[in-house]
Amino acid sequence: MTTILINTLLLLAIILMLSINLSYFCGKEPSHYAAIDDERFSIANITKGITTISNRKLSPFIPPFIPFRSTFVASPKYSLAACRIQKNLSTILLHLFCYLNTPRKFSKKASSLTTEFKNHLSTETCNTTHATHIATNTTFTTKLAIIRDPVERFLSGFVDKCIHEAKNKDSRCYGCDRDLVCVLKEQYTRFQMIVDGSLRSYSYEDRHFAPMSWFCDFDPETIKNYQFLYFGETEEQQGQTISDLMDVLDTHGVDNHTISHIFDELSANRTKHSTSGSEIRRKMGAELRKSKEAMRYLYHLYENDYRVFNLKSPFIYHKV
Ligand SMILES: *[C@@H]1O[C@H](CO)[C@@H](O)[C@H](O)[C@H]1NC(C)=O
Ligand SMILES: *[C@@H]1O[C@H](CO)[C@@H](O)[C@H](O)[C@H]1NC(C)=O
Ligand SMILES: *[C@@H]1O[C@H](CO)[C@@H](O)[C@H](O)[C@H]1NC(C)=O
Ligand SMILES: *[C@@H]1O[C@H](CO)[C@@H](O)[C@H](O)[C@H]1NC(C)=O
Ligand SMILES: *[C@@H]1O[C@H](CO)[C@@H](O)[C@H](O)[C@H]1NC(C)=O
Ligand SMILES: *[C@@H]1O[C@H](CO)[C@@H](O)[C@H](O)[C@H]1NC(C)=O
Ligand SMILES: CC(=O)N[C@H]1CO[C@H](CO)[C@@H](O)[C@@H]1O
Questions:
Q1: Residue 111 in contact with ligand 3 by CB distance below 6 A
Q2: Secondary structure of the chain: what % helix, strand, coil (to 5)?
Q3: Considering its fold, how many domains does the chain have in total?
């Protein structure tokens, strides 16, 4: 009898959650999130009770820590390694680590860490820069991962894959043709299938939209071995990430000359690394905020990422 009661309560709670009016970016400042007004009514507080007692099948949230193939780079010399989560930044990380692993003698010309750099790096050095499963490898005293706001990450991926790349490839983003809800819905279904083991082959889109907590061999234990750098959306935040990264290099004995070179490269080309300033990005962001359905999918897809990485969730619970 108590089981029935608990189940009924659970159902009610879930229905209540589904009817939560989500809003996003309520503030006037588009690059900042509106904070959760009242802690007591925070989604974290409400869902905490539910997710701990309900089984996975009942929860509409995509769970964290599903193992997903990841790539890593390492510089054993500096006892430093990193997990590459996001495509764009991951290219930079690869080049940066190649640069660290390349003997100091190489020419000034071969200095650009972003686009041209890779043409000058030795393939051999870059090959050995790749690593596997760093999370528990004690060779590296610091394991880095760069994380980004989950909704911003989705938006950036959407603009990049589902708008720009889809221009030359109709099948891109499941043929959704710029439709946010269509992509989110498809992705939500696919991730649910991945979670319950019924989907075996992953799409290009899966890799870009999967929750960050699925990467890097993260689990509740290994995640503690990582040092996180946060990649924000504003110039200032991105500048901060770069300085944080330089501090890490400094701590690991990278010489000043190399650090200042890397710093100049990353700083000069910083704005190119993100699409946060683009017109289309703003337009899609506005469209996203207006769509309740899109917001609900985002909430179910990424709320766990906000929790796992201790990021301020943009989803607001409104008292009803
Ligand atoms: C949802 O919340 C927003 C912001 O408070 C409000 O403008 C909108 O009317 C609400 N929608 C519903 C259906 O309650
Ligand atoms: C959750 O709600 C309870 C009861 O209202 C409150 O005491 C607690 O501080 C809240 N915790 C968080 C994390 O908001
Ligand atoms: C980096 O920025 C500098 C200065 O704007 C530019 O000259 C250089 O070509 C850029 N490098 C890359 C790889 O984009
Ligand atoms: C680097 O790796 C690629 C792909 O794995 C391989 O084809 C190539 O031969 C390697 N080059 C060197 C110099 O090891
Ligand atoms: C740790 O990483 C180093 C360098 O990449 C590698 O040689 C070693 O085999 C790794 N150790 C384990 C236990 O994976
Ligand atoms: C390198 O930087 C550190 C701290 O910024 C400074 O104390 C040191 O003198 C610098 N070394 C050289 C060789 O410039
Ligand atoms: C360094 C790098 O790969 N930058 C890319 C980031 O993504 C934008 C948008 O697709 C590209 O234009 C940049 O080249």
A1: no
A2: 60, 10, 35
A3: 1
